[in-house]
Q: What sequence folds into this?
């Protein structure tokens, strides 16, 4: 694996409006199978903060076999998203869905039973 050290910008936000962590590499493109390690990056910030820091990152370039493998496997990983839906039916047979709701008792029924 070929390794390259490059400057990067780390931006982290932890507010009521935003919650994210982004890394922008300068002068480099990442391809399938490559790995990036950011040196001395902040991992925690307090509530309400938004920080932007300059750091260095090491990019480990993938070989042709690793790049091919990553592209091939990515096609099958996409299929895990296919069962997402907003309907009341579940298409897999692993569990029964929708689950039966427990009976809801009204206040009038509770009062009658408490008098007895």
A:
């Amino acid at each position: 694996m070929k390794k390259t050290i490059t400057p990067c910008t780390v931006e982290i936000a932890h507010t009521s409006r935003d919650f994210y962590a982004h890394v922008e590499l300068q002068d480099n493109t990442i391809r399938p199978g490559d790995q990036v390690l950011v040196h001395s990056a902040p991992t925690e910030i307090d509530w309400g903060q938004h920080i932007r820091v300059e750091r260095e990152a090491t990019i480990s370039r993938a070989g042709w076999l690793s790049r091919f493998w990553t592209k091939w496997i990515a096609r099958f990983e996409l299929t895990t998203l296919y069962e997402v839906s907003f309907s009341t039916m579940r298409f897999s047979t692993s569990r029964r869905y929708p689950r039966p709701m427990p009976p809801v008792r009204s206040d009038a029924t509770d009062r009658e039973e408490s008098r007895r």
The chain has a mean pLDDT of 80. The CA atoms of residues 13 and 50 lie 4 Å apart. The first strand starts at residue 3 and ends at 14. The first helix runs from residue 64 to 77.
